[in-house]
Every structure is written in C-alpha cells, then in structure tokens.
Amino acid sequence: MLALLFQWVLYAVALLVVSKIVPGFDVRGLWPALIAALVIGFLNATLGFVLKIVTFPLSILTLGIFLLVINGLMILLASSIVRGFDVRGFFPAFWGAIVLAILGMIIRWLTRAA
C-alpha cells in the first residue's frame, strides 16, 4: 500500500517535470499534479485499455507508436477534467506522453529496486 502511494507521488512529480520540459503542458502545483496522476491512471486503466485493444492491429503496424497517441489522448482528456492541469493541444499531449513514458520507466525501475 505504501509503495503504491509512493509511486503515485512519483508520477505526480513526473507530471511537474514534464510541465517544465514540454511547452503547452502546464501543471499548477503539487495538488493538481496528484489529482491529474490519479485521473490519468484511471483513464488509462479504463478507456485507454479499451482503445488499446481496439487499435491493437494499428499499434502493431506502427511498432507501438500509436500507443503514445492513445496515451496523449488520455492526457488531453484528463486536462479537460482536472483544474490546474492544462494541456494546450494534441502535440503537447503527445510529447508529454513520450516524456512521461520515459519517466515512468525510470520510476518503475526505482520502485522495483527499492
């Protein structure tokens, strides 16, 4: 349980890092980042999961790149739900998804090693 909370906080910090790197990707503080991390996780586990199953052939054809498009769409949808988390357009969401994927790999590596 504690590890899950720790991962949640790390993903929120990752969102703050992305907001410093990607133009058009804005997070106004830790609290919106925590809520956005929760909403993005929920969207990816529900709607994102269904979209990934439906678009599986397209994901194979694009060697997985289309999964980043789906993740970008989930980020864009989360930004319309969470106050204080603003993503202005698809391309900031797409680049944010790429940076979040890289940071997510690092977070999973760190939490697995701990």
Explain this structure.
The protein is mainly α. The chain has one domain. It has six helices and two strands; from the N terminus they run αβααααβα. A two-stranded antiparallel sheet has the order 1-2. Helix 1 runs antiparallel to helix 6, helix 2 crosses helix 5 and helix 5 packs across helix 6.
Taken in chain order, the helices and strands follow as HEHHHHEH
**Category from helices, strands and their pairing:** mainly alpha
Instruction: Report mean pLDDT, rounded to a whole number.
Output: 94
Give, in spatial order, the strands making up the sheet with the most strands.
1-2
**Contiguous helical run count:** 6
How many domains, as an integer? 1
- The total beta strand count reads 2
List low-confidence stretches. none
Radius of gyration: 14 Å
Overview in brief:
The protein has 114 residues and is mostly helical. The chain has helices at residues 2-21, 30-45, 47-54, 56-61, 65-81, 90-113; strands at 25-27, 85-87.
Keywords:
6 helices, 80% helix, two-stranded antiparallel ribbon, 114 residues, mainly alpha, single chain
How do the helices and strands line up, and which of them pair or pack?
Elements: H1 2-21, E1 25-27, H2 30-45, H3 47-54, H4 56-61, H5 65-81, E2 85-87, H6 90-113
Antiparallel strand pairs: 1-2
Helix pairs in contact: 1-2, 1-6, 2-3, 2-5, 3-5, 5-6
